[in-house]
Write a structure and sequence with these properties.
Elements: E1 2-5, H1 6-11, H2 13-21, E2 26-30, E3 33-38, H3 43-52, H4 79-90
Parallel strand pairs: 1-2
Antiparallel strand pairs: 2-3
Length: 91
């Protein structure tokens, strides 16, 4: 556990975030009194839990498809107007 004052934390925020992310527990003090604790988050268990709950699915092992070689659609005019018109047509 490491302690840091608020003023020093503000000056060196990136360094303290890196320390917390690497596993250090940082206690933030104000006038020598502890007011907060900064710890890193282990994201792996969160992703495992979300996958298990069916809220997310793992990425496929295959590479993402490429758009190369696909012919572009010829348009004229404002693209946002075309999108709006297409949305209105579907309603």
């Amino acid at each position: 556990m490491v302690e840091v004052g608020v003023a020093q934390l503000r000056r060196e925020l990136k360094d303290w975030l890196d320390r917390a992310g690497s596993g250090d527990e940082v206690v933030i003090t104000e006038r020598g009194r502890p007011i907060a604790r900064l710890t890193g988050i282990d994201i792996a268990p969160l992703l495992d839990r979300l996958t298990q709950d069916g809220q997310i699915s793992p990425a496929p092992d295959q590479p993402r498809p490429s758009a190369r070689g696909i012919q572009r659609v010829a348009t004229s005019g404002d693209v946002s107007a075309l999108v709006t018109a297409e949305r209105d047509a579907k309603r």
